[in-house]
Structures
1.
Amino acid sequence: MTRPRASQSPDSTIVGVATGTPDGGVAIVRVSGAEARSIVEPLVASLPPPRTLARRRLRDSEGAAEDALVVWMPGPKSFTGEDVIELHVHAGARNVGRVVAALQERGARAAEAGEFTRRAFEHGRLSLEQAEGIAALIAARTSAALDQARRLVAGELGREVEALRMAVGDLRAEVEANLDFPEDVAEGDVSRWREELSQHEANARAWLRSFAAGQRARERARVVIAGPPNAGKSALFNALLGRSRAIVSSTPGTTRDYVEAELQIDGLDVVVVDTAGLRGATEDAIEHEGIGRSREQMAGAELVLWLEPADAEPTDARPSGALGVESKRDLGARRSDWLGVSAQSGEGLEELRAQIARSVRGDETAPWIGLARHRDRASEAATAMASAQALLERTAPLELVAFELGVAERQLAEITGRDALGPVGEDVLGRIFSQFCIGK
């Protein structure tokens, strides 16, 4: 089923529940559109003055009175740019449902996914990447992801992209101004154009290089503790968490399945996983299954901590790329080139946390706050700028150079959704806003 465009019914008034779940103390029902006042006011007797939160008695779909707080925000100075009214009512699916039904009976249409935010974009209240920042903020699973989403909503990326787009646009305009008299273009002008293009492309490439760092920060890295039985994996797991989460026993094979917990290390949100001990053939079917799951966790980890205890002979079983950790260092040391820790005394734990943070964070490149769609458009823009430079180097017709610069300008403009050379396609908008929840 094709999603209808919000702009196909610009005069419709929509209603949706703006809060996440109906089981809290308060739910916010949002109404937006030209008829918001005429739909809501009869249900609350009278609206308070604009942008004033006031208590009103609200009649629901069955005529019952509901205590509510009401705020009226006339457009264009509202989130959507339209007249907006919010009803703060008691939560609960049935209660909220009856309030929404009363509004629909009076002519409000149920909002589609992301339609409030889309209207804000279409009325110029938000740029496209700011709208995506709202969705990213709601979906944030780490502190870094939350911080990046807030920066998106604040327009930080948009300002940076818009500055580059305008610079590329100015260069395109200068090249186009010389199309009729290319023979009058001085070599110094061409040299300057190439130098400016090189700098513009370098800016875009810098964004792309730091995209991976931003992506890593938005995700919770999985750090898997693995090793032979009785290596002290569960004890280290508990020590890192600062609490007893996994069962610790001297009996081999005690851990039959992986156990995971969230942990913050040096500002990074990670998931630490304790796994079953790895050894050769075993007749215990449950332990065999646990070993298989341990290997699966290792395969999907950003970092594997391979533990071997100081009270056992060293082996050559450490997987390639795993961080060698010698546990039970309070009993001595056998592996001088491994990081030594003791879950009992706490020796080496801070150094291990620091090493985990360094490994998960990767290089020190400052993370770019752009999302995958922004990366793709920036990459296409950089490619177009490189093509324009190549054309200038071989003295190709200026029409071709201007064309490539126009491509770069359009790709950058698609990040923010504001393009003087043409609107962002409906397919792009549909994909973006369909990922939002209802009421946002």
2.
Amino acid sequence: MSFTASDDFLKTCLEHNFWTWSAQSKVNPIPVTKAKGVYFWDTSGKRYLDLNSMVMCVNIGHGDERVIEAIVEQARQLPFAGPQMATQPRGDLCKKLTEIVPPGLTKFLFTLGGADANENAIKLARGYTGRFKILTRYRSYHGATYGAISLTGDPRRVAWEPNTMPGVVHFLDPYRYRSTFHRLNAEIPEEEFSRDYLNHLEEIIQYERPETIAAIMIETVTGTNGIIIPPAGYLQGVREICDRYGIVMICDEVMSGFGRTGEWFAVDHWKVVPDIMTMAKGLTSGYAPLGAVAMKPEIAAAFNEKVFEGGLTFNGHPLSLAAAIATIEVMQEDHLVERARQMGEVMADMLAELAERHPSIGEVRSIGLFGAIELVKNRQSKLPMAPFNQNSPEMMAFRKYLLDHGVFLYTHWHTVLLIPPLIITQEQLAEGFEVIDRALAIPDAAVE
């Protein structure tokens, strides 16, 4: 990538900004100047097709004037009110959410984003049950604050150990392509596959003792760790286990919510209602920072007499609430959930076509506009194109080719994520897939 000499703000950012998720000497940010629809532009005028919804959040697309005007109008009316105050946007968003969340989730705690939504969910579950332990999966990401990073199963957690939140126990995901249990039985029926992983979860519960476990938290559809879609019966089985042992079921829908999977929330595909559900990202489509915890009334009632010790200055910020209300209205008016379902079928066909042509593709997976390409050096051995928790020259060259040719997406180790705005057209998807098709020549050349 090359940018013009007039990128003054880029120079200032590189001189003074401390960058997250980065070794500071190696950052190379794109100096973004504007964004509209499914595209954004840098200071040189180069256009990028945004196949990652910026940070998996701009579900309605960039620059929707309806949301912008709602934020502006709220700023004129009431730019800020404290978290202990009732406001019109707070009441309006509560009403809006009851229209779209699974039935029975009628109480809402507003947060600043997904990480603190997940941290508050844990506080609620522990306070409700009087228990301490939390079970989460290894291929999970729940945020970067100290509690949320402890909940996270993937190696992003390890950098901050041992001083993360205690009481978290991890278990294995039902990841069929790389199943620990079924390497010699790849053709096992899906229901049996689910049962084996539910048995694995229940065995861990027995070892840890169910009376010590407050909650099981899962990403309904695993996000950055590879778009792992629960097999038939799995989510219902987790619900049944939680009911049997009095464990709170928490579904993290921070990434999979708000139409991403072709339903308002991923749990809707399996008709499962969790006790607590967390959300952020698509809640405002990234137009303002906001997260939320939706819960059943009995969870909230546990704090009718005892104080819920938690909260931040900007919880329920009016500008963010206004952005969320407008975002949900845009999704309803433009039928974006239905559109995601329809375009998800188109993207699934495009993914299948790529898999047929490229020997470096081990598997493709998608649900709605939530997709992944898993790149391997050998289809038989499933040797990944990059080692676990590492990059590789092939993956770096692949992503560089995409950026050089104006396609922005996210790669995680050996997987490629496809998470475009829900407004994307078939023609725009084809535009991106044409570049991906060419870029795949790079990992193809590394196939053994």
